[in-house]
Design a protein that fits this description.
By secondary structure, this protein is an alpha/beta fold. About 30% of the residues lie in helices and about 20% in strands. The protein has two domains: about 170 residues, Thiolase/Chalcone synthase (Peroxisomal Thiolase, Chain A, domain 1); about 120 residues, Thiolase/Chalcone synthase (Peroxisomal Thiolase, Chain A, domain 1), CATH 3.40.47. It is built from twelve helices and 13 strands. The longest helix is centred in the C-terminal third of the chain and has 22 residues.
Amino acid sequence: MIRAKIGGIGYYVPEKVVTNHDLTKVMDTSDEWIRERTGIQERRYAEKHVETTSTLGVKAAEIAIERAGITAKDVDFIIFATLSPDYYFPGSGVLLQRAMGMQGIGALDIRNQCSGFVYGLSIAEQFVRTGMYKNVLLVGAEMHSCGLDFTTRGRGVSVIFGDGGGAVVVQPSEDENRGILSTHLHANGDGAEQLAYLNPGSHGGVHFEDKERFGYPEDQEFGGIFLTQKMIDDEDLYPNMNGQAVFKYAVTKFPEVIKEALDTNGYTAADIDMLVPHQANLRISQFVQKRLGLADDKVWNNIQKYGNTTAASIPIALCEAWEAGAVKEGDLVCLAAFGSGFTWGSALIRW
C-alpha cells in the first residue's frame, strides 16, 4: 500500500514584529487584556505593497522544496490554502506558480480558513496514494494585516491575527508504516456567520433575513452587488466573530476529532509524541491539552509569538517543532484544526 509522507517542510514569517503594546496606540486595549483572552504577546505583519499572501507562500515553499530534495520543476501539483488571497480571483495558487516558474501544472485554491492546511493535506495525500502525483506542494499562507479593523470596535478580532506562510511537499513513502496514517474532515454550516468576513460578497448587501440592517425593502431581490456605498459608509467591511460561540464549539470539536484519528489507528492520547493544534487561541489549546492529559512537552504552541495565522498556523508550528528537534523520526504526530465554517479536521502522522 502506498502511503504519503511529508518529505520537506518550511515556513516564513515577516520581519516586522507588532507587540500588544503597539496595538494600544491605535485601540483601547492592553497587553494584559490580550494575553488573558488569547495568550498572544506579539505577531508579525508583512510589508504592505511589497509582500503579499502569495509571496509569503513562495518563501515557505522554497524552503520546503529544498528540504524535500527536489526542485520547483519537480513539483506536480500545487494546493494553496488561504482566506486572505492576493486577489478576490484568481487564487493565490497560480500566482505562486508563476513566481516559482512552475507553469503548466495544476493549482488548486481551497477556502477552509483555519482548517485549510488539514483539508489540503488530506487532498494531497489522496493524490499521492493513488499515484496521480509524486510531489504535491501544499502551502498555507495569510496576510491578515491588510484586512483588519484597527479600532477599538474591531479589537476582539484584530488583536488575534498575524501574517505568515508555511509549506510542505507531500511525497510517496517507501515505508508503508510511516507517513500520513489518516485524515478526518468535518463541517457544520449552521455556524457560518459566527466567524465570517461577510462583505463584500455576492449576497448583494442583504444578509439572509437581516435586510433592515442594510436599509433594503422587504421585496429587495438578492444578488448582483459585491460592494455597496452603505457598506462603506457603515464601515461594514471587516471580519466579525462571536468569540464565545467559537470557543464553546472549538473545545468540543478539537478533542473529538483528535480522538477520531487515534481510534481509527488503534492509538490513545498517551501514544501521541507531539500534538500540533491550529493556533487559534492559547486558552483553547490548553483546554484540549488538559482534556487529553498531555504533558507540556507533547503540545507545540507558538501563538504567543505569531498570533493566529489561520491556514499557515499548523505548518509554521510543525516546522518550528521539527527544527527544534521536538518532532523526530518515528514520532506519532497529530495535527488538529477548528475554524470558520465551522470546519474542523485532524491528521495522524508517523513521522
